[in-house]
Every structure is written in C-alpha cells, then in structure tokens.
C-alpha cells in the first residue's frame, strides 16, 4: 500500500491564537501529531499542509516534510478538508510520480492518538474495501442524542430519538461521534468522486480518555488535564 498522511495545520486560529504551535505540556501542540505519525508502520509519506511559515519551520525541525505552503484560498476559516486534501494529494503524486492508495488526515487539535490508531484505520479500510474509515468515540449518557430536544415555539419535541418515559441511562443505545483522531480516505474517492468520506464508511472506537478536539480555551484546559492523566497511565506523549 502507498499511504500519504497529511497533517492539516492552518495558521489563522481565532479561538486560540497560534493554536497549532502553542505549547501543551512543554511542546508545540502539532508535535504530538507529528511524533506519533512518524511511528506508524503503514504511512509511506508524511507531510504537513500549512499556510503559515512559523508552523512550517517548527514541523521541519520535527523532521516532517513541508513540501509547499498552502495557497491562501485553501486556508480560510470555513475551508473544508476535502479541497485541502485534494491539493496535497495531487501535489505529492506529481512530485513523487506515484499514485497513492489511501490518504490519512491528521488534525493537530486531537493530539492524543497512538500509532496503533493510525495503523488500525488504514488496515481496516483496506481489509473492508471501504471508501473511508473514521475513528469514533462513545457519547457519554449526559450528552446522549436521546436527551436532545427541539423547541418549536414553546413545545418540546425529540430532536432525533424518542425518549421513553422512565428510561434509565444504562438502557440508552450506544451512540458515537467522530473523534477526529484519524480519518482515512481512499484515493479514488477523493479524486474521482470529489468526496472525503464516500458512501461505504467503516469505523472503530477510540477511548473517551484520549478524546479531545481543541477549539477554545476550555478545550485547552481539558487537554492539559487529560495529558497529565495519560502520562500517569504511562502513555508517552
């Protein structure tokens, strides 16, 4: 398999200025993703897609290739991942004169992944011949979709699931959300179907203890807390 891994790191963060290079536990946030990705057994090429020279410099010091500075039009607040990954994939295929099988997308804002998470995702999509593979985390009962409501005027309705009266949280059906730990997409789905996920999506569960998607300072504080806990459990981050 030929597997391209792309760490996506835009420079213009508003919620937390310079978020991707802000130090968490003494090192830049993006370093957690770079160091883990370098330990993967299945990644063929690892690069960073960024529009920011400071991020590029730090990533190069970490031993990660930064083959281009991302075009400004692909680094806006609302730019989705698909055009960013298409750009990186086409650039690297042209540069290396090869065609990749899969693209792994890694976001620095979810730093507590392991090499096994990455390898498991790639092997799963390959084995199942799927269009994409996503990491998932189980939703705690406090935020379970069965408890989410829709307010229409002053009338309350279920948002998506009926909540039977008297149901206990132990009886809630399992519900998951994408954890942002790792995404793997089939190359042909990205290029030929112009889709990030495609139709045939497989997934696997990652522990809630390692789940974080840093967007604001409250998330950052939670990331610092989780980092201390994970280190106490002998995780090497």
What does this structure look like?
The strands form three sheets. A six-stranded mixed β-sheet has the order 4-1-5-9-6-10, sandwiched between helices. Strands 2-3 form a two-stranded antiparallel ribbon. With 237 residues, the chain is of the alpha/beta class. A hairpin with a 2-residue loop joins strand 7 and strand 8 (155-158). It has helices at residues 29-37, 53-61, 81-96, 115-128, 187-192, 217-232; strands at 3-8, 23-24, 27-28, 45-49, 102-106, 132-138, 149-152, 155-158, 176-186, 201-205. The protein is 30% helix and 22% strand. It is built from six helices and ten strands. It has two domains: 3-135 and 178-232, Spore Coat Polysaccharide Biosynthesis Protein SpsA, Chain A; 140-174, no CATH class. The longest helix is centred in the middle third of the chain and has 16 residues, at 81-96.
């Amino acid at each position: 398999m030929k597997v391209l891994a792309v760490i996506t790191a835009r420079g213009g963060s508003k919620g937390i200025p310079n978020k991707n290079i802000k130090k968490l536990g003494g090192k830049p946030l993006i370093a957690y993703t770079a160091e883990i990705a370098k330990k993967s057994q299945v990644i063929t090429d690892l690069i960073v897609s960024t529009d920011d020279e400071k991020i590029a410099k730090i990533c190069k010091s970490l031993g990660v290739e930064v083959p281009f500075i991302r075009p400004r039009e692909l680094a806006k607040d609302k730019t989705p991942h698909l055009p960013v990954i298409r750009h990186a994939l086409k650039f690297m295929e042209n540069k290396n004169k090869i065609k990749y099988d899969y693209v792994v997308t890694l976001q620095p804002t979810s730093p507590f992944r392991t090499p096994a998470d990455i390898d498991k995702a790639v092997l799963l999509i390959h084995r199942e011949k799927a269009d994409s593979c996503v990491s998932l985390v189980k939703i705690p009962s406090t935020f379970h979709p069965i408890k989410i409501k829709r307010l229409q005027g002053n009338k309350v309705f279920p948002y998506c699931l009926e909540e039977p009266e008297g149901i206990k949280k132990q009886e809630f059906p399992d519900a998951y959300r994408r954890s942002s730990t790792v995404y793997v997409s089939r190359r042909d789905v990205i290029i030929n179907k112009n889709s990030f996920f495609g139709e045939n999506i497989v997934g696997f569960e990652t522990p809630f203890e390692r789940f974080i998607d840093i967007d604001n300072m409250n998330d950052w504080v939670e990331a610092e807390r989780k980092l201390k806990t994970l280190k106490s459990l002998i995780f090497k981050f």
